[in-house]
Write a structure and sequence with these properties.
By secondary structure, the chain is mainly alpha-helical. It has five helices and no strands. The protein starts with 7 loop residues before the first helix and ends in an 8-residue tail after the last helix.
């Protein structure tokens, strides 16, 4: 899935769609981990292995998309700074002081977008850790991931 980098709202929406697996991890685990009522209907090892593979695939897609966007936006920021002849510093200190041109405002917007994507990437790391913990708590006795 192609994640748009220049519009944070659209970026966030697409990333949210890619987080469905993590959002539904408890429900998925309830269906793949055997209980007294469905012990004969479920192959826990195969189900846990398939869910682990699905989680890792989605995690890799999201992380790669976020890094791609962050790299792209960072390059655009450096390019705009170079075009404006400014040092590689954050322009928030000049914000609201009437010193910024239209190009300066666009540069600040790009810097803000880079910060937002960086925050999303940090949230992604936490989400992946929590999802892995829930998975290991429920599937740990049936399946041990190799990585």
């Amino acid at each position: 899935m192609d994640v748009p980098c220049s519009e944070f709202a659209e970026f966030k929406r697409i990333v949210g769609e890619l987080r469905v697996v993590d959002d539904q991890i408890t429900h998925k685990l309830n269906t793949v981990v055997p209980t007294r009522s469905n012990v004969d209907d479920v192959s826990a090892k195969a189900s846990c292995a398939a869910l682990w593979e699905q989680m890792n695939t989605v995690h890799a897609q999201r992380t790669a998309a976020m890094h791609k966007c962050l790299t792209q936006i960072t390059a655009e920021v450096k390019e705009q700074k170079s075009a404006l002849g400014q040092a590689d510093v954050d322009l928030r200190a000049q914000q609201g002081k009437g010193k910024a041109s239209v190009d300066g405002r666009k540069l600040r917007e790009k810097q803000a977008l880079a910060r937002d994507i960086t925050r999303e990437l940090m949230a992604e790391e936490i989400l992946q850790e929590q999802t892995a913990k829930i998975f290991k708590d429920r599937c740990g006795r049936y399946f041990t991931p190799s990585s």
